[in-house]
Amino acid sequence: MPSFLRGRSLRLAVGLVALAYPFLVYFGLRLASPGALALALLGVLGLRLVIDRQDSARGSFAPAFWIAAAGALLLVMLSPLAGLQSYPILVSLGFAGLFAHSLWQPPTVIERIARLHKSDLPASAVRYVRKVTVVWLAFFLVNAAISAATAISGSLELWTLYNGFISYVIMGVLFASEWILRGFVLNVHRDAA
Fold first, then answer.
1. Domain containing 55: what range?
2. What's the structural domain count of the chain?
């Protein structure tokens, strides 16, 4: 098998594990102790960090995962179950930090993404994507708070449902509606320029 296919296959497998993380925790706790499961999942997440570090296209998002993995590892040492449940919270906080940092050190995350499709953004469009970055920052902060509330609730089912399904649906709706609106708004701004 060519090395680029192995790399892609490995990235896909690790990405699927990260995506399915809440369900892996939920079902994994039926088979293993929280400590053993935490070490296994942290190993897979560590592999994702290594892959992301080698992937220049995703390199700007790696700090969010490094922060999440380091925080989860610390919490695993204190309480394996809390460490397992902290990962979605820490990922959201990591992304919130990334988006906040881009507001203070432009270009913003959304501007970088928008420029992949339209490199000539007028100043009015840059102001728009800055506002969108603020919306994503707010989303990640609220998502972290809700994730924390589900962990504190003591209901593994509620934690799994929110972090493994509901938060993805909300994120998908926000992304799709923002992407559609951004295309419209950027075309209006380009035509007005």
1. 3-192
2. 1
